[in-house]
Amino acid sequence: MTSSLELLTIGRVGVDVYPQQTGVGLEDVTSFAKFLGGSPANVAVAAAQLGHRTGLWSKTGNDPFGRFVKRALEGFGVDAGLVGTYDALPTPVTFCEIFPPDDFPLYFYRKPSAPDLQISADELDPEKDLLSAVRDAEILWFTVTGLSEEPSREAHLAALEARGRDKLTIIDLDYRPMFWNDPADATRAIAEVLPYCSVAVGNREECQVAIGETDPQAAAKALLAAGVTTAVVKQGPAGVLGVRGDESVVVPPTPVDVVNGLGAGDAFGGSLVHGLLEGWSLERTLRFANAAGAYVAGQLACADAMPSSEVVQAVVDHGRVEKGNA
Q: pLDDT value at position 323?
């Protein structure tokens, strides 16, 4: 399967532990639910739920949570054959607090590091399936977090160089300050990889770190100047800006009663991949992606909530997430 993937994602994977009580701090929570987590894993799941052949290159710990992650990926239709095991570190766990509609603090248990940051360039051996998967996948997706530590950063650079500049490669400007010593380190790392990327996706704050611009139009222009062909800038209540060549569109957000906003960006990402693979216009792609993100924002889980194309299209058609469907 790895030789014919439509989407290969790289990086963060672990276990999300979400409280079953909302509106209270973790100190007052009495019960939790366990889910597959990590943005690249969730994007792979989202695209798989939309009917695509997807895989993940990453690592887990040699522990029960690691076994859960691999089993969950396969259960969602994601090829876990490139998810290795790193004995020296446990599978990371992430807790969150849920204060709808817009406050969802995250607590990452990834110290001193995480197995997914231990992928290495040495794994791209010509005799192994991984190199073929990296080169042959129709789309490669990675996040800024994977550039935050070695050997993961070197592995990403080696993958990008092996893939070349003429393939569809997406960078998620998913900047999380707790993974970096200084924003300037992230800026330098992003500048090194942008010339290999076809598409860049991020919000205004992430664009500030990546390219030094928060104004959406200026950020899109700077990303295009850095080498990408499509820039997607999330503007919160102002919608999503997409710029590709001479095409520039702004798509409004899809209304939803938010339960947990943490998985919305990953659902958006999987649907962005779907639109690109289907050859849709930029506007249709972003409307579909907005609808998918809104649908997941109306549910507690991330990976477990990723919708089918029929569900997303129903949201597009209604213009909002209906309470009975979320």
A: 66
Q: In this predicted model, what pLDDT tens digit does every residue of 121-156 receive, in sequence order?
A: 999 998 888 999 999 999 999 999 999 999 999 999
Would residue 23 be called left, alpha or beta, if left means φ above 0 and alpha means ψ between -120 and 50 degrees? left
Distance CA(245)–CA(104), nearest Å, equals 35
53-92 pLDDT, tens digit per residue, is 999 999 999 999 999 999 999 999 999 999 999 999 999 9
Sketch out the chain's domains with CATH numbers. 2-325 (3.40.1190.20)
Q: For residue range 6-31, what is the model confidence (pLDDT) as tens digits?
A: 999 999 999 999 999 999 999 999 99
Q: Identity (one letter) of the amino acid at 313?
A: Q
- Answer yes or no: are the C-beta atoms of 113 and 179 closer than 8 Å: no
